[in-house]
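User: Um, any thoughts?
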Amino acid sequence: MDFEFYDSLDSVDWDELSRLYRVAPLGDKRPGDLKIAFSNSRYKCFAFDSGKLIGAGRALADGVDCSYICDVAVLPTHQHRGIGKSIVSRLVELSKGHKKILLYSAPGKESFYRQFGFKRMSTAMAIFEDQEQAFEGGLVNET
């Protein structure tokens, strides 16, 4: 089955994208917030199957130093079909030329990103809006 990939925001239904993140599950992201986040992202990728949004991802990038790939999600009904791999590959390719390409993975998904050349960082740190939830979800630790 051939899927279509686009980088334009023109055909994005923000409510549909919000539902995708909720069921993927990557959390409850409001449609208006997603529109702002994707509009402010240098690179984006949307995957469609027969006109239905089935996957998405984006990268914040400055054009020289750093590109941060984030919010990669695929509908559970379409996972394990190479869609996520295609989205990440496209975002990595678009980010080439930056001195570093970063992302953080959901716990347990790190091996998926290793195939693209990502390595675990020993010095990455983060401040989350809900630090306790990030701690409970395994995204941060006390050390």
